[in-house]
Specification:
60s Ribosomal Protein L30, Chain: A, Hypothetical Cytosolic Protein, Chain: A, 2 domains, 3-stranded antiparallel sheet, 9 strands, about 15% strand
């Protein structure tokens, strides 16, 4: 990659050094664990007009918000233990499929971000194109479909590690081939690379959030001010 691509990469290396810390200034407590966390480690829920609990991933919906650690097992616990009515201090209709609904919304958000990165020219697809991107030194993260052969994944991961001077490159293995293909308008997407840029960073953040959600609250830091509830 050369010319404008190199210049874009150079700018992003500088801007990419900024660390988002605004969430630290506006932390919230998880209604299940009572651990205080950054907002990017939490999911906000509100009550809809009919009193149904609604996930508010973009944190824009009006009304009182209840925050949970962004982990599926935490949402499942909130449903099982009837946390929402107590937290909202009101009657709340809690769908049994709420944990699945949240996962679906997180998946849609990550794939939408990938589609935008593709349009912005911050993603390349196919084994050969990924190799070229790795050699250019502008790879933010690698993307392998869940169906990808382990041997091919290992080779690309190793090349990325070497090209980065031994720095670990994030690898996303959250999506299937069909999901990647549909999101990008391409056929049989197995391997891809995110090229450093704002759109690509949003893909990495969204995919990481989805992966953490699936793995559960044990992958999160302990948080602070944790208070055990009576029925915990």
């Amino acid at each position: 990659m050369s010319g404008a691509g190199d210049r874009r990469c150079g700018r992003q290396l500088l801007s990419g050094q900024k660390v988002r810390d605004d969430a630290d200034e506006s932390g919230r407590s998880c209604a299940v664990t009572r651990a205080r966390r950054r907002k990017d480690e939490l999911i906000r829920f509100v009550l809809g007009p009919d009193g149904t609990v609604v996930p508010d991933l973009k944190e824009r919906l009006p009304g009182r918000g209840v925050w949970l650690t962004a982990a599926r097992d935490t949402v499942e616990s909130a449903v099982k233990r009837k946390v929402f009515p107590r937290a909202f201090k009101a009657e709340a209709k809690v769908p049994d499929e709420l944990p699945v609904q949240v996962e679906r919304l997180l998946t849609e958000a990550a794939l939408s971000a990938l589609a935008l990165a593709n349009k912005a020219g911050e993603a390349v697809f196919g084994y050969a194109k990924v190799e070229e991107a790795i050699a250019s030194g502008c790879v933010l993260a690698l993307v392998h479909a869940r169906e990808a052969a382990e041997d091919g994944c290992r080779k690309l991961d190793s090349k990325a590690f070497g090209a980065s001077g031994g720095r670990s490159i994030p690898v996303i293995r959250t999506f299937g081939t069909d999901e990647l293909s549909l999101a990008t308008g391409r056929t049989n997407v197995i391997h891809a690379a995110l090229i450093q840029g704002g759109a690509a960073e949003r893909v990495l953040a969204a995919a990481s959030r989805l992966e953490r959600y699936r793995k559960g609250q044990d992958v999160f830091p302990a948080g602070t001010e944790r208070i055990r509830t009576k029925d915990e």
